[in-house]
């Protein structure tokens, strides 16, 4: 038994020395190999060493005398298979390590097609473009009093082929596209989209061959004043879509040439020169508010509101005290209210009853009313006003505040159209006041009563675009030049030359043509040349 223990320790010592040598060799080769290969070898060698160490210890226990253990010679079959599989995987991976460049010709084609030449790329046979010659489209006044706006421009067909292109037709249309955000029937395209054609231009009545170059086609339209302005709100979006299409013959080009643009139509409402004055009283208190504010505001810029509060103090005779109402907080808010009627399409229009409508059974509605309110500007103030509580009769609070639209607010100007779309705005001012009292003899000893009130005021406000020059197309005057009088020039009598003066100043033409020689004048003003 003791000799078996001695041989076991001897064999285990040799195996440890062998393992240390193997680890040193592996560390030296690990610096040269790639990280992927070393990871695979470490897994395989580690498993093989663990299996071989366990097998060697069992053999030492079973035999009385055994030679020193060498782990390379006695690797278990599963570990050997794992090492061979790992080495083959590393060799295959090393073979496939080379990178190959891939080319996709379609990507370059897509890049060229996204250029400004359109769908055909740089080899497009022709292109369409336009240029507006009229000023910005602005309706001056409300829908009942506006005279509309003139729109004029040029459509350009740029033919690039040397032999030219023959076009079968060339047309353009202007439509009003109304999108209902909350339609009569959800997920119905016809209920959500309504198109109204304003005008259609037919530029070619018959096929025409256009030579290489740029060919202009003028167009114009008078937009009536009752039309709505462009908008994009929570309920409705309105856009003026201009579409042009030129169809060449099939032998010239298989695809039509199209152009789609959007017109930005605005409305400017009249403004008052003086600010609006409003007075509000808040019973059961004696507080009176006097407000001066502009009724028309603009999306860009600040607007000033002047507020004065009177009647903030009250004298109680019996306890000989003074009651004060002190302003603690002020909040202003700009609110936008939109209303619209979502019409039903032909498919979803409700049918009318056969017996007709009666007061008890009204006719079915062909449209659903929608409304939405949102805040487009808000701010809260806790200071910034002037207060004076020196006497009971002259206790006042004065403040001038600037209100404006938020920087990233999505707004729409005031509008009211015939289809039921309406957008209105109002300014809300909310004040929080608290009650305090003090002895008449010592007004500095102020005591809180714990009573507070909220004073709220609403002011109708018009949000409109700036008018610019503010002159509609029908009020524009023709140009007047500085050096040209309004009427033809007048000729004075003394500046007129008689027949005698003209004969002396002007030399006859026939004398010049005939050359030198005596000139004979007749009584009727004609001259003749004698040669002989």
Polypeptide structure, described:
It holds the Pfam family LDB19. It contains 7 helices and 25 strands. It has 532 residues and is of the alpha+beta class. The N and C termini lie far apart (174 Å).
Task: Name a few traits of the molecule.
532 residues; disordered C terminus; 7-stranded mixed sheet; alpha+beta; 7 helices; 19% helix
Q: What is the beta-strand fraction? A: 35-45%
List how many beta strands DSSP finds.
Answer: 25
Helix content: 10-25%
Largest sheet, in brief, is: 7 strands, mixed
Average pLDDT, rounded to a whole number, is: 78
Q: How many H/I helices?
A: 7
Shape: extended
Any idea what the radius of gyration is? 48 Å
The span between the termini is 174 Å
Can you tell me the residue ranges where pLDDT is under 50 for at least 5 consecutive residues? 47-75, 93-97, 105-121, 519-532
Determine the structural class based on helices, strands and strand pairing.
alpha+beta
In short:
With 532 residues, this protein is an alpha+beta fold. It is built from 7 helices and 25 strands. GO terms for molecular function: protein-macromolecule adaptor activity; ubiquitin protein ligase binding.
Secondary structure elements and pairings:
Blueprint: H1 2-30, H2 35-62, H3 77-95, H4 105-113, E1 126-132, E2 138-140, E3 149-159, E4 165-180, H5 189-192, E5 193-202, E6 208-210, E7 213-223, E8 231-232, E9 236-248, E10 257-263, E11 266-268, E12 276-282, E13 287-293, E14 296-297, E15 303-310, E16 313-316, E17 321-343, E18 367-381, E19 386-388, E20 396-403, E21 415-416, E22 422-439, E23 447-463, H6 499-505, H7 509-514, E24 519-521, E25 527-529
Parallel strand pairs: 2-11, 14-23
Antiparallel strand pairs: 1-3, 3-7, 4-5, 4-6, 4-9, 8-9, 9-10, 12-13, 13-15, 15-20, 16-17, 17-18, 17-22, 19-20, 21-22, 22-23, 24-25
Helix pairs in contact: 1-2, 2-3
Region (Disordered): 20-99, 344-373
GO molecular function, one term: ubiquitin protein ligase binding
Biased composition (Basic and acidic residues): 30-44
């Amino acid at each position: 038994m003791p000799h078996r223990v001695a041989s076991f320790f001897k064999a285990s010592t040799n195996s440890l020395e062998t393992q240390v040598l193997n680890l040193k060799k592996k560390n030296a080769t690990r610096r040269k190999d790639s990280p992927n290969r070393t990871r695979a070898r470490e897994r395989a060698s580690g498993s093989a060493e663990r299996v071989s160490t366990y097998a060697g210890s069992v053999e030492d226990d079973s035999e009385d005398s055994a030679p020193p253990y060498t782990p390379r010679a006695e690797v278990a079959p599963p570990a050997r298979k794992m090492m061979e599989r790992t080495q083959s995987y590393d060799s295959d991976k090393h073979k496939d390590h080379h990178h190959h460049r891939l080319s996709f010709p379609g990507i370059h084609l897509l890049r060229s097609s996204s250029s400004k030449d359109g769908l055909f790329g740089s080899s497009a046979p022709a292109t369409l473009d336009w240029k507006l010659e009229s000023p910005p489209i602005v309706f001056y006044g409300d829908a009942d009093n506006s005279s509309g706006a003139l729109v004029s421009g040029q459509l350009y067909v740029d033919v690039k082929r040397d032999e030219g292109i023959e076009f079968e037709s060339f047309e353009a249309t202007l439509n009003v596209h109304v999108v209902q955000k909350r339609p009569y029937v959800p997920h119905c395209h016809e209920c959500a989209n309504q198109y109204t054609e304003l005008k259609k231009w037919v530029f070619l009545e018959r096929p025409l061959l256009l030579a290489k170059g740029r060919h202009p086609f003028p167009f114009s339209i008078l937009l009536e004043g009752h039309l709505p302005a462009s908008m994009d709100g929570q309920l409705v979006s309105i856009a003026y879509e201009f579409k042009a299409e030129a169809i060449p013959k099939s032998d010239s080009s298989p695809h039509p040439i199209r152009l789609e643009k959007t017109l930005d139509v605005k409305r400017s409402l009249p403004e008052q020169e003086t600010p609006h004055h409003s007075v509000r009283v808040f019973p059961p208190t004696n507080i009176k508010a006097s407000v001066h504010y502009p009724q028309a505001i603009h999306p860009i810029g600040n607007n000033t509101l002047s507020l004065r509060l009177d009647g903030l103090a009250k004298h109680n005779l019996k306890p000989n005290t003074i009651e004060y109402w002190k302003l603690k907080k002020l909040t202003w808010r700009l609110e936008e209210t939109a209303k619209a009627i979502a019409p039903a399409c032909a498919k979803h229009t409700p049918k009318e009853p056969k017996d007709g409508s009666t007061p008890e059974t009204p006719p079915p509605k062909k449209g659903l009313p929608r409304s939405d309110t949102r805040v487009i500007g808000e701010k809260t103030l806790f200071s910034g006003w002037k207060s004076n509580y020196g006497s009971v009769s002259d206790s006042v609070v004065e403040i001038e505040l600037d209100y404006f639209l938020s920087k990233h607010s999505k707004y729409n100007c005031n509008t009211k159209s015939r289809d039921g779309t309406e957008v209105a705005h109002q300014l809300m001012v909310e004040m929080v006041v608290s009650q305090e009292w003090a002895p008449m003899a010592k007004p500095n000893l102020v005591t809180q009563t714990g009573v507070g009130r909220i004073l709220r005021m609403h002011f109708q406000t018009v949000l409109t675009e700036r008018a610019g020059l503010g002159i509609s197309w029908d009020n524009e005057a023709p140009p007047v030049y500085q050096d040209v009088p309004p009427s033809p020039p007048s000729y004075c009598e003394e500046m007129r030359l008689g027949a005698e003066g003209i004969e002396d100043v002007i030399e006859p033409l026939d004398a010049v043509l005939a050359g030198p020689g005596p000139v004979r004048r007749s009584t009727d003003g004609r001259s003749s040349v004698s040669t002989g």
